[in-house]
Design a protein that fits this description.
This protein is mainly beta. The longest helix has 7 residues. The two termini are about 15 Å apart. A hairpin with an 8-residue loop joins strand 2 and strand 3. It has two domains: about 140 residues, Chitinase A, domain 3 (Roll), CATH 3.10.50; about 140 residues, Chitinase A, domain 3 (Roll), CATH 3.10.50.40. The protein has three helices and 18 strands. Pfam families: FKBP_C (PF00254).
């Protein structure tokens, strides 16, 4: 199993998608325990230019960098330098970002975590309590395609308690190199090629990619008895594995009547979860699908909630569920 980043908190789970009897929330199943970001925040730091140690090897975007030991005393504020300026979309606070990164301790140059060796970018929300504040302040306003070098004093890192798991003391200033690959927000949609929807017995899903909820038109037909998981838009990203976590936009309706019961579009908030902690129809339907895709999933009762739907969800017993799911990123 790949190890979770030391930077992140366990994300909140979904009520309507959680597997029956499990409302423990999402996360990467099988990963080692991860400390949360500090629950209290210091006032916003001043952003200064330095001092910052040099990147001595791996200087290209996407390459694992080697960073020199810090020289002298680090800044008491947040030192930030854009080493490579990207030309993509601007990152806003509250966005999810996909990024590769390396973190080390200023005084010793000891690397305590990096995603390059895991060969899987970190996907994380730049939100208070979800990640250390140094990341929020250093990366907000930067553009995708950028490499950012910054140092984080304890006040905007792990505070006086440090992080014992990572070997970080409460007095340690941290140094990070972050390659920002992509950014996602409530207006993000699938990206790819439209796939014909030519089965009149199945629902038709809208193909708009403007961040608005797609339409779902349920036919006047008998609901299928088996799981349906078809591309509406086929992306070109990596395939999702059965043990992966994903970042998605989705909309769900009931087959009988087509009434909507859940939607990230309505909440204006993306969501993430592990495929091991949702109903079987979701885990089976998304496994093997490509990142960037929009997928129609029709879930029969035995792979959904059967005779035990979540209270207050608006889902009746033995309902067939229909979802449009945009797979934005694999986590």
């Amino acid at each position: 199993m790949r190890r979770r980043s030391l930077l992140i908190a366990v994300p909140a789970g979904l009520v309507t998608l959680a597997a029956c009897g499990d409302d423990s929330g999402s996360g990467n199943a099988g990963d080692t325990a991860s400390p949360t970001a500090p629950t209290t925040s210091a006032p916003p730091p001043k952003i200064v230019d330095g001092p910052l140690p040099a990147i001595t090897a791996g200087t290209k975007f996407g390459e694992k960098p080697t960073v020199a030991k810090g020289s002298g005393e680090p800044s008491k504020q947040l030192a930030v330098k854009t080493v490579i300026a990207g030309g993509g979309r601007t990152v806003a606070e509250g966005d999810f970002i996909s990024a590769n990164y390396l973190g080390q301790i200023w005084s010793s140059a000891k690397v305590f975590d990096n995603s390059y060796d895991r060969k899987t970018p970190l996907v994380i929300q730049l939100s208070q309590g979800g990640i250390i504040d140094g990341w929020r302040y250093a990366l907000t306003g930067k553009k995708t395609g950028s490499r950012v070098l910054f140092s984080v004093p304890p006040a905007w890192g792990y505070g006086e308690q440090g992080n014992e798991q990572a070997g970080i003391k409460g007095t340690d200033t941290l140094v990070f190199v972050v390659d920002i690959q992509d950014t996602f927000n409530a207006k993000s949609s699938a990206k790819g090629e439209e796939v014909p929807q030519d089965d009149a017995e199945l629902p038709t899903v809208g193909t708009n990619t403007d961040g608005k909820a797609p339409s779902i038109k349920v036919p006047d037909a008998q609901a299928p008895k088996k799981l349906v998981a078809n591309y509406v838009i086929e992306g070109d990203g990596a395939e999702v594995g059965a043990e992966d976590s994903v970042l998605v936009q989705y909309k769900g309706v009931v087959w009988d009547g087509g009434k909507e019961f859940d939607s990230t579009y309505g909440r204006k908030q993306l969501t993430s979860f592990s495929l091991q902690q949702v109903v079987k129809g979701w885990s089976q339907g998304l496994t093997g699908k490509k990142v960037g895709s929009r997928v129609l999933i029709v879930i029969p009762p035995d792979l959904g909630y059967g005779d035990n739907p979540p209270q207050g969800s608006g889902i009746e017993k033995d309902s067939t569920l229909v979802f449009s799911v945009d797979i934005l990123a694999k986590m």
